[in-house]
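Dear support,

I submitted the protein below through the web form. The confirmation email said the job was done, but the results page showed an empty box. After a refresh the structure appeared. I'm attaching both so you can tell me whether what I see now is the final result or a partial one.
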Amino acid sequence: MQGMIGHHQQALEMTALLASRTASADMRKLAQRIEVSQADEIRMMQTWLTSRGLPLPDEHAHHMNGATLMPGMLTAAEMERLAAATGVEFDRLFLASMIKHHEGAVMMVQELFSTPGAGQEAEIFAFASDVDADQRMEIDRMRAMLKEFQR
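What the results page shows now:
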């Protein structure tokens, strides 16, 4: 949960770039779906941690030097490249980067479920299963969108 909050926060940082860098209504709709789901999941994870007396991670810990990036997260250089892009170049790079980011979340869920005794609590199992299903669905949607940009 603690690592996934930073992971989701980076997705929100990526979608925030979209408003000033794309002309695509479809990209804006995609960003809105990602923003709503990731923000909602961050709130759920914060509530889960707080209810157990566990510390909340700094939402920007992934920006700190030496921070270990969770699977699929963009490096500072990759984020800079994304922030510098505009138009169709941005759209392509955003989709490729967000696909990578979502695949990292799927890997984290798979790792959770493959760890003996982990993910047994009903709330965690349901949350992780939802993350897995949502991320896979968005990956499929983004791959289809990326194909359209490559034509």
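Response: this is the final, complete result; the empty box was a page-load delay. Helices lie at 2-18, 25-51, 76-84, 87-114, 122-149.
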